Automatic annotation (TrEMBL):
Residues 149-160 have a biased composition (Polar residues). Residues 307-355 form a coiled coil. It comes from Armillaria novae-zelandiae. The lineage of its organism: Eukaryota, Fungi, Dikarya, Basidiomycota, Agaricomycotina. Residues 127-168 are annotated as: Disordered. This is Uncharacterized protein. Keywords: Coiled coil.
Length: 355
C-alpha cells in the first residue's frame, strides 16, 4: 500500500555523507543502507572480497512476514530477512524487503481514489477468507475477470480499475540493510507492526546472491506499482510463497494474526489483495518461480566467470610477484658479484703499490 515513510530519503542522504564500511562489509553495515536487489547484485559482482570469501557463504536463515497494524495510516506489509555467515567470523545482519510507490506527485492526495477503487474491487469479487488466508493450500493462479486485467510483461490491456490520473507508476522496490533490530522502528517512522509469520530457513542454504536474484526477478515481473494488483502485499507475499514452495522450510510459525496476510480493513469489511484468485497468472508466485529458475543457469554462469576472473587475476598477480622477486634476486646477485670484483681490484692495486 502507498505508505510513505518520510525517513527514507534521510537515510539515503546519510549514506553518502557518513564514512562507509569496507566494501565487503556492506551487508553487515553499522549504518542503515538503502539499496535495491539489482544494485546490490551489481556491487557484489564487482567486489573481490565477496567473490573470494562471501559467495555461497552468506545464508538466509530466517524470514519474518510483517504487517503494520491498524493504528498506522496504511496496513503496510514487508519482509524482515536475517543473514548469517557460514564461515569466517560468522556475522549476522538484517534486511528489510519492501515495495513502495515511486510517484508521490502523481498520486498526491489520491486516497479518496484509492478507497473508491478498493470499494469497486470489493463489490466485483466475493471474498472467501476461509480458503484465501492460508498460504499453503490456496490456488495462486486463478485468473482475474477481464475487467481487472492490466499491463503485465505478457499483456497490453489496461483495466477500468486503473487510477484516473494516468497509468500505474513505477514501483520502488527497496532492500534496506539494517545494523540491528532497533533500526526497524526508525525506518518505519515509528509505525507499530506485527510479525504475522516466521519462516525457518536454517537447513535450506538460500544464499544472499540467490535471494537477491529472486527479489530482482519479482521486481522485473511487474515493475509497475498498482494499489489493487501489484502493491506491497503482492511483492511480500510472492517472495514468501516462492521461497516456501522452493525450499520446504524447516518450520513456519504463525501468529494469531497470520490470517491478516494480504488483507486490508480500511474499507467496508476486510479485503484480500495481492494473492490467490486476485492475482493474474502472469504475476502469480508460480510464474515468478518459473522465471527465477529459468534465469538461474545464466546467473550461476556469470558468478562462475566472475570468480574465475578473480582467480586468473590473482594468478597473474602472483606470477608478476614471482617475476619481480626473481628479477630482484638477479639484481642483488649481480651487485654482489660487482662488489667482489671491486674488492679483488682493490687488493690487486694495493699489492702493486706495495712493490
Amino acid at each position: 500500500m502507498p505508505f510513505q515513510w518520510l525517513t527514507r530519503p534521510f537515510y539515503a542522504l546519510l549514506r553518502f555523507i557518513m564514512p562507509r564500511d569496507s566494501p565487503e562489509m556492506r551487508v553487515f553495515s553499522k549504518a542503515t543502507d538503502v539499496t535495491s536487489a539489482s544494485s546490490l547484485l551489481n556491487s557484489l559482482k564487482e567486489n573481490l572480497p565477496f567473490l573470494k570469501d562471501g559467495l555461497g557463504n552468506i545464508l538466509i536463515t530466517q524470514i519474518e512476514y510483517c504487517k503494520c497494524n491498524k493504528s498506522s495510516v496504511w496496513e503496510h506489509e514487508f519482509l524482515l530477512v536475517t543473514l548469517k555467515e557460514s564461515v569466517g567470523s560468522r556475522r549476522s545482519s538484517l534486511l528489510l524487503v519492501d515495495r513502495m510507490m515511486d510517484n508521490t506527485k502523481e498520486y498526491a492526495g489520491g486516497q479518496d481514489e484509492l478507497l473508491t477503487d478498493i470499494a469497486k474491487h470489493q463489490k466485483e469479487e466475493t471474498i472467501d477468507m476461509a480458503t484465501d488466508s492460508s498460504s499453503s493450500t490456496e490456488s495462486e493462479s486463478g485468473a482475474l475477470p477481464a475487467a481487472q486485467q492490466w499491463d503485465t510483461p505478457s499483456r497490453s490491456q489496461r483495466s477500468s480499475a486503473k487510477l484516473k490520473k494516468g497509468g500505474p507508476p513505477d514501483a520502488l522496490d527497496e532492500l534496506i540493510i539494517l545494523p540491528n533490530r532497533n533500526a526497524i522502528v526508525r525506518v518505519l517512522g515509528n509505525s507499530p507492526f506485527d510479525i504475522l509469520m516466521t519462516m525457518d530457513l536454517t537447513q535450506s542454504r538460500v544464499t544472499l546472491e540467490r535471494f537477491a536474484h529472486l527479489l530482482r526477478t519479482t521486481s522485473r515481473n511487474t515493475p509497475q506499482y498498482h494499489f489493487i494488483f501489484a502493491q506491497c502485499y503482492w511483492y511480500a507475499y510472492t517472495i514468501w510463497r516462492v521461497l516456501e514452495t522452493e525450499t520446504q522450510p524447516g518450520s513456519i510459525r504463525k501468529s494469531d494474526r497470520a490470517d491478516h496476510q494480504c488483507s486490508y480493513s480500511g474499507g467496508p469489511g476486510r479485503l484480500v489483495l495481492g494473492k490467490g484468485k486476485f492475482v493474474h497468472i502472469a504475476r502469480a508466485p508460480e510464474t515468478v518461480k518459473t522465471q527465477w529458475e529459468a534465469e538461474r543457469p545464466a546467473e550461476d554462469q556469470e558468478w562462475a566467470e566472475r570468480r574465475q576472473a578473480l582467480y586468473e587475476e590473482a594468478e597473474r598477480a602472483e606470477e608478476c610477484r614471482r617475476e619481480t622477486e626473481a628479477a630482484l634476486q638477479a639484481a642483488q646477485a649481480e651487485v654482489h658479484e660487482l662488489r667482489r670484483e671491486l674488492e679483488r681490484y682493490k687488493r690487486a692495486s694495493h699489492s702493486a703499490n706495495a712493490v
